[in-house]
Design a protein that fits this description.
single chain; 119 residues; mainly beta; seven-stranded mixed sheet
Length: 119
């Protein structure tokens, strides 16, 4: 599976963005998918994950109620809808495939897309 993330940009605090991650490869629909982020000077952290069938999702506490992960297997795409953005959400966001809902074990990564939230 190859992954291509897009949709980042500059947004004011309180605004919204939707990130997309397009996957190529015949077995995309067999994988759990996740979103991670890395803020400047910090380690990469788990944000959200979704099971291969899209029925179960999992989020880090700080984004619960604001972010929503979804997928469209017909389009080979996973999304991260981000609402009520805060300055602390500023980071490079990465999508990944093949790990657990908890955020561990992801082996395939896309390039990042930068999200900047201005206060």
């Amino acid at each position: 599976v190859q992954l291509q993330a897009s949709g980042g940009g500059l947004v004011q605090a309180g605004g919204s963005l939707r990130l997309s991650c397009a996957a190529s490869g015949r077995t995309y629909s067999n994988y759990n998918m996740g979103w991670f982020r890395q803020a400047p000077g910090k380690e990469r952290e788990f944000v959200a994950a979704i099971t291969w069938g899209g029925r179960t999702t999992y989020y880090r506490d700080s984004v619960k109620g604001r972010f929503s992960i979804s997928r469209d297997n017909a389009k080979n795409t996973v999304y991260l809808q981000m609402n009520s953005l805060k300055s602390e959400d500023t980071a490079v966001y990465y999508c990944a495939a093949g790990g657990a809902l908890s955020g561990i074990g992801y082996s395939t990564w896309g390039q990042g897309t930068l999200v900047t939230v201005s206060s």
